[in-house]
Amino acid sequence: MSCWMPGCPALSMCRGLAALPVACLERAKDLKTRLGILVHKPELGHKIGSSSKLQLGSRRRDSSREVLEWRESFDQLLKSKSGVNAFHTFLKTEFSEENLDFWLACEDFKKTRSKTKLASKANRIFEEFVQSEAPREVNIDHETREITRKNLSGATSACFNEAQAKTRTLMEKDSYPRFLKSASYQDMSRQAASRGTSKRSHT
Fold first, then answer.
1. Whole-number Å distance between alpha carbons of 177 and 97
2. Looking at the 3D structure of the chain, how many domains does it have?
3. How far is the C-alpha of 137 from the C-alpha of 131, rounded, in Å?
4. What's the pLDDT tens digit per position in 107-124?
5. ∠167-92-164 over CA atoms, to 5°?
6. Of 17, 60, 79, 148, which alpha carbon lies 20 to 30 A from 126's?
7. How many C-beta atoms surround the C-beta of residue 171 within 10 A?
8. Between these two residues, 47 and 139, which has the higher pLDDT value?
9. How far is 78 from 179, CA to CA, in rounded Å?
10. How far is CA 60 from CA 27, 66, 85, 86, 192, in A?
């Protein structure tokens, strides 16, 4: 808008803007641009939200199936990352999480390729879990403990196999059945089953 008449509102506004510092005018332009983006954002947000809801729903269905599979076998539980986490939390309540930690340490140990690292890792695992009065001593018999000690002299990826197998059997026969009967797992499986029923009723 332009006006040559004295007292014209547009002329007063233009003079007022001209008197403002350049920095203020730049900030005003920036603010206008941002407001313009926000006006169009809800539609974009809706699309992203819908997509993430679909993905979340899919993940929930997958996790529900996993939870119910844990009771099929101890192997199914150990194959599931969330299953291992849930079992570990349960073992903490029984103060026996060192058995699972030892099993996991052995699984990680088997992936080691460097002979130097293999030897140092083997000693560290033995000192933490296997030797008598170790800080986190696992429940294995004296004979298995001695076999493992001898294996350290020429450490290979198989040097904990016997001790790991004994610990796994102990968890499978002792802790695993109690985990399946625990209130925490019963609650998780009920929720998983109800989500599965809800999914079937919608299809």
1. 15
2. 1
3. 7
4. 999 999 998 999 999 999
5. 15
6. 79
7. 23
8. 139
9. 13
10. 45, 10, 17, 16, 9
Between 201 and 139, the higher pLDDT residue: 139
| pLDDT of amino acid 48 | 35
Global pTM exceeds 0.85: no
In a domain? residue 130: yes
Range of the domain at 140: 61-188
**Residue 63 pLDDT:** 83
Domain at 71, CATH number? 1.10.167.10
Residue 143 near residue 125 (C-beta atoms within 8 A) = no
CA distances from 83 to 44, 80, 103, 168, 187 (A): 36, 5, 14, 15, 14
Bigger pLDDT: 197 vs 56: 197
183-202 vs 81-93: helix axis angle to the nearest 10? 150
Judge contact between 86 and 188, C-beta under 8 A. yes
Using CA atoms, how far apart are residues 10 and 8, in angstroms rounded to an integer?
Answer: 6
Listed in sequence order, the DSSP H helices in the chain are 9-19, 22-69, 74-79, 81-93, 97-110, 115-125, 142-151, 161-170, 176-181, 183-202
pLDDT beyond 50 at 52: no
Whole-angstrom distance, CA of residue 133 vs CA of residue 142 = 12
